[in-house]
Design a protein that fits this description.
heterodimer; A: alpha/beta; 11 helices; 9 strands; B: alpha/beta; Urease, subunit C, domain 1; TIM Barrel; eight-stranded mixed beta sheet; globular
Chain lengths: 315, 435
């Protein structure tokens, strides 16, 4: 069990701001939250009377639905806003949109935005707790937390594990949050991708960087694949889908270089046949659907703790 | 009307003065500089102990925004900001709306400046019509109207051939071509220095070589043509290396650096404050130190602020959507004192060279030195006066500065243009004597 019982900040902007004990607290709390999801009546009154706004400026299916479900299971009142059909299409700025919503006195705002730092902008001007549900190519903290939860479920710990993260490292907020979390919790991370998609200075995060997927997979406990967006496939980053899959796609043969009990992860949405072969994605080492299930529990834990709840179950 | 500045510490590197002298101003001219000038019928101002009397400071890289973007700055507010920062003259960039690509616009700027009557304004004309990089402007006409240099600042001259023709043609009028060095394809939609900080923040990077590649190209073209290229707001050590090499080879290349580039690094962008977003971006610590070394060893010619006002609404956006640039006129002196004088990197005469003598020489304009019979453009500096930067109190119409709240030393006590005192600093004890 973790030795802290509350989070220091009222916001969750990134893994960067979390201490290891706080990460452990969230993961421990998520265990209890996962149990709620197994009950016949999947609801607890922890956030009754609290209002949560889901502010999604960027297309999202799993993250948005996962947050919504987490909020409902905690009995919060929720409102959602997506960019199409909103004041944003009429030219309203992010800060004005946030202030307008704040005038309705929400307790928390969950934000997904295409600009890095968008959650930080809100945290500067809002009284509510801000939860970053993905900002540009910066961070996606709840994804890294649910990944850590999923790994811990299977491996019992994060410390000492070897985690390979493979794909479009440059544009991935999942990579940044995971690299911060995993290295902070004592895992060793090896990041792999084509040189055109490796951010400068990545090694300063304590991550080993390679362009060889074989080297990345060798002896790995966890192989985490990242999505490569179609628009990177033509232009100057990559020559073709065919060449990408042949150099960086996760196949059964490559996975065989990892430990025999290694797990395969993907934050979704997957491009089958681009970054991952279907037989691996659907194989018995894949925990991709567990990640989705655990996303709800981890987000419940985050919402609960940011609302002032503690490890003793008092919100 | 005569005024005698008595007992000030005159620093004038061109005239070789660095000591206590009296300066007698007669009308808009300096009548005499000597020890113990008799007062006669002149009004006597006893310059407070320790104050420096220097040739008027000249900022050769300023965006006054008028015509067209008066919500950011006007010629009136920009010049009020200039004199408050100790500048008696500014050269203003042509990226107004419309672009200063023809004599009529130059004349408008000069007319407005004359009406305002604070600091002198030296317009810089565009290299190409609309700064579109295609048709060369009527450089001769711009020159006759009062332009002192040409540039497509904000938009680099993408075509090497256009740069060649501009350097060749402008040389006929002894005008430098000022280049905003940046390879457009390498810059892409980058918003921050490409390095570990931008990588972590998920911000698109602008690599150092986006700047140095174009500087190297332009220096080679200057060698070919014999024209004078001036590298604006240099930010990376690779560009400085190219400039040094060019100078060693006898090529006419000069360069400037902005105070923020020798003060801050990309570390300052953590937190996504859009007042730390400028172009070129804040660079690495190694680059910052290289700029300071270039100022020390003489390879950097000029300090210019790249004063770039933007309205608060324009800056209150996501980092990647906000415009590039910060205001600089009113923070230049204290930043130079903090970064260059106090640590002993350079002495005052060298700083006055960077802020006055060399810009005057590069732009071929009056001032830069105090000579008998010359224009009475004088900055009186209180070099150790404590100052606290307050964004809200800046004279500039825009308040976009990352230095809000900084406690520093050094300020303009009084600014004299053409013999007329156009600014007295109420916050500096002793400055009231210049009123």
């Amino acid at each position: 069990m973790s030795d802290v019982t509350t989070l220091r900040s009222r916001h969750l902007l990134g893994i960067e701001d979390l201490e290891p004990a706080e990460i452990s607290l969230i993961l421990d709390t998520a265990v209890a939250m996962k149990e709620v999801g197994t009950r016949a009546i999947k609801k607890v009154p922890a956030l009754r009377g609290r209002t949560v706004v889901n502010l999604f400026f960027e297309a999202s299916t799993r993250t948005r639905l996962s947050f919504e479900l987490a909020e409902k299971r905690l009995s919060a009142d929720t409102m959602g806003m997506t960019t199409s059909g909103s004041s944003v299409t009429k030219g309203e700025t992010l800060i004005d949109t946030a202030k307008t919503l704040e005038a309705m006195s929400p307790d928390m705002i969950v934000i997904r935005h295409a600009s890095s730092g968008a959650a930080h902008v809100l945290a500067r001007v809002c009284r509510s707790s801000i939860i970053n549900a993905g900002d540009g190519t910066h961070e996606h903290p709840t994804q890294a937390l649910l990944d850590a939860f999923t790994i811990t479920e299977r491996k019992g710990t994060l410390a000492g594990l070897r985690v390979a993260i493979i794909g479009d490292l440059l544009h991935s907020r999942v990579l940044r949050s995971n690299a911060l979390l995993l290295t902070r919790m004592g895992a060793s991370v090896i990041a792999c991708g084509p040189p055109t998609l490796i951010p400068l200075g990545l090694d300063r995060l304590g991550v080993t960087v390679t362009t060889s997927i074989d080297e990345a997979c060798d002896g790995a406990d966890v192989v985490m694949m990242l999505r490569v967006q179609h628009e990177r496939m033509h232009g100057l980053f990559l020559p073709s889908v065919r060449e990408y899959f042949s150099l960086f796609g996760l196949t059964t043969e490559r996975l065989a270089r990892a430990k025999s009990d290694a797990i395969v992860m993907h934050p979704g949405p997957m491009n089958r046949g681009v970054e991952i072969a279907s037989d691996v994605a659907d194989g018995n080492q894949s925990v991709i659907l567990d990640q989705v299930a655990n996303g709800v529990a981890v987000r419940m834990a985050v919402l609960y703790l940011l609302a002032g709840g503690d490890a003793q179950g008092e919100a | 009307m005569k005024t005698l500045l008595k007992g000030g510490h005159v620093i004038d590197p061109v005239a070789g003065r660095d000591g206590v002298f009296d300066v007698l101003i007669d009308g808009d001219r300096i009548a005499k500089i000597a020890k113990d000038i008799p007062a006669g019928d002149a009004r006597v101002i006893e310059v407070p102990q320790g104050f420096l009397v220097t040739p008027g400071l000249i900022d050769m890289h300023v965006h006054l925004r008028e015509p067209g973007q008066e919500h950011k700055e006007t010629i009136a507010t920009g010049l009020a900001s200039a004199v408050a920062g100790g500048f008696t003259a500014v050269a203003c960039m042509p990226n107004t709306s419309p672009v200063n690509d023809q004599a009529g616009i130059t004349q408008f700027m000069l007319k407005r400046a004359a009406e305002v009557g604070l600091a002198r304004v030296y317009p810089i004309g565009a290299v190409s019509m609309g700064s579109n990089g295609e048709q060369i402007t009527e450089i001769g006409d711009l020159h006759n109207a009062g332009c002192v240099a040409i540039t497509d600042d904000g938009r680099p001259v993408g075509s090497a051939l256009l740069m060649r023709r501009a350097l060749e043609y402008a040389s006929m009028f002894k005008m430098p071509v000022i280049e905003h060095c940046e390879d457009p394809s390498l810059k892409g939609d980058g918003v921050a220095h490409e390095g570990a900080v931008a990588s972590m923040l998920g911000l698109k990077g602008i690599p150092s070589c986006a700047e140095s590649i174009m500087a190297e190209r332009d220096i080679s073209i200057a060698e070919l043509t014999g024209g004078h290229v001036h590298i604006a707001h240099m930010s990376v050590r690779e560009t400085l290396r190219a400039v040094r090499t060019g100078k060693e080879r006898g090529i006419k290349v000069t360069c400037e650096v902005a105070p923020h580039h020798f003060t801050l690094t990309d570390d300052a962008i953590r937190g996504y404050d859009t007042n730390t977003k400028m172009n070129p971006p804040l660079r690495s610590e190694a680059d910052r130190l290289a700029m300071i070394e270039g100022l020390r060893d003489g390879s950097i010619d000029v300090i210019a602020t790249d004063h770039a006002p933007h309205h608060a609404d324009e800056k209150a956006l996501e980092f990647d959507k906000a415009p590039f640039g910060i205001v600089g006129l009113e923070t230049a002196i204290p930043l130079c004192v903090k970064q260059l004088i106090e640590p002993g990197v350079i002495l005052w005469p060298r700083l006055i060279e960077l802020l006055s003598a060399t810009p005057a020489k590069i732009l071929n304009i009056p001032g830069g030195t105090l000579t008998e019979g010359g224009v009475a453009d004088i900055t009186v500096i209180a070099p150790t006066a404590p100052v606290t930067i307050r964004a809200a109190a800046l004279k500039s119409k825009s308040k976009n500065t990352p230095f809000d709240g900084w406690d520093m030393r050094g300020a303009a006590a009084a600014t004299i243009v053409g013999g007329k005192t156009v600014f007295v600093n109420n916050a500096v004890a002793g400055a009231e004597r210049f009123r």
